[in-house]
Amino acid sequence: MESKRQQKFSRVLQKELAEVFQRDVSHLFNGAYVSITQVRVSPDLGVAKIYLSLLLANNQQEVLQVIRTNTKAIRHALAQRIKNQVRVIPELIFYLDDSAEYAAHMDKIISGLDIPPPSEEDDTEDESTR
């Protein structure tokens, strides 16, 4: 469980990184929209794991590789924004957040299940137990 300090710091990072992605480095993504779904910070605030959701991206792995290649520039842009709020700019590690895809996959599986309707015998048993 994260401490209050970690939670506060991760919210600051999420907000400021969103601004960096929208304003400072948006030219890197070839029209893809990058959304930050979650930020997890280590207890010493030295490492931040950033989970990204990529919309309108033809190849998500390619966009993620571009982001990872430009981590130094992204970290520098972040540092310019939060240098007066923190002592140390954390190391940034980027991951794809596939929770939306997983939820869509599970929804497809559940909707594809063949669940038979309850029989009349089950209905009469339920009424007699009440």
TrEMBL record:
Q: Report keywords, A-Z.
A: Cytoplasm, Ribosome biogenesis
Which Gene Ontology terms of cellular component type are present?
A: cytosol
- Residues of the region (Disordered) are 111-130
Write down the NCBIfam families for this protein, in alphabetical order: rbfA (TIGR00082)
Species name for this entry?
Adhaeribacter rhizoryzae
Tell me where in or outside the cell this protein is found: Cytoplasm
SUPFAM superfamilies the record matches: Ribosome-binding factor A, RbfA
User: Could you give a single Gene Ontology term from the biological process aspect?
Assistant: maturation of SSU-rRNA
Stated name of the protein: Ribosome-binding factor A
Regarding protein family, the annotation reads: Belongs to the RbfA family.
Q: Which gene encodes it?
A: rbfA
Q: Name one GO molecular function term.
A: ribosomal small subunit binding
